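note to self: dont lose this again. the chain is below, predicted strucutre after it. 393 aa total, dont forget to put it in the shared folder this time
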Amino acid sequence: MSTDPREKFLAQLAAAVDAGTFAKLTLGKYRGPDASLRNVHVRPVTLKAGPHLAMLWRHTTRDITKNHPPAEALSLLGTLVGTDFLHAHLFAGETVAQLECEADGRARLRTTVAPSPATVNSGHNREKQHLIPTNTPWLRDLGVTNQHGQIREGMADKYRQIQKFAEVFLHLTTEAGLAETQPLRIADMGSGKGYLTFALAGLLGDRAIIRGIESRPALVETCNQVARKNQFANLTFTAGQIDALPGPQATDALDVLIALHACDTATDDALAHGLRAGARLLIVSPCCQKELRPQLTAPPMLAAALRHGIFQERQAEFVTDALRALILEWAGYRTKVFEFISTEHTAKNLMIAAIKSHAPADPDRAAAARAFAAFYGIRTQRLAGLLGLNFEP
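---
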């Protein structure tokens, strides 16, 4: 067998596809000619024509899926791995293989046993296999499943949310260049009962140090008890308000900041904390966007429609989150706004992900944020104020 890391990785991939253990593959750190292409995700599917590999090409503003027969897909991947894409992340049975290539041709391959193995789901109508199986002990301890590993009544949507978040998190950390960072320092602001915080602890194992911040002391104590019971030594929960957190010190530096469903301006407080802590990746799912609604001045063309309260509410949500994305881009981040999980399962489904990518305080990006705010009559906004971006003329 070849000792070249790239060739060994491709051999592992081909063997997994041939053996039926292939679960998924992520290609990242793109260095090819298409400026809009970010990464590629590959998974097995079974079509009428037989087994195929579905390749999802993620671009800045669109996604494209193409299905290929296995041999054709492996041939195509052989031309992409280590050339256009310098990073590749393979899940096959209980094995995780991570390939990192350098522009100068150097490469490193790491093969480990997955903390929570992703198993194969090749058929559209088969029972789906998950990154976090239903028999995971902490799911039982948090009341998501029963002692037999069955999802409790009323918890199916929560279980879907946990799985989706685990998938999204892995994709985003790969895209942010954090797939190999150890320790990966994560803060979850407004962690609540800790469902998603525990998902990260189970997914990442010892390579992450995770801290949950929650205002309700009873939930903090419960989560710490479950963490100790499940031997998550690097997972802790602390009582506190997001807007009362002290400014990060050198020892409080972060790689990832998470704030899911932090109410109204608490999302802004969390984002500002993550920015000050130097987080490379910010993940928020806002809710209760009330701050800007009293300030909104309907543009003349929209005034007639916005006399309806429901449209005013949705407009306030759109303006708040669109302005947050513009402010984050001014602050040095590349943003993605997308549906986190179907509205069939939860109405709080919008997610903003921001990856540090460029120098902050670009005048053109500041002008874009100010122009957007002026169009809607916005004079002040919490995140802008915390970061020193003035909207006043």
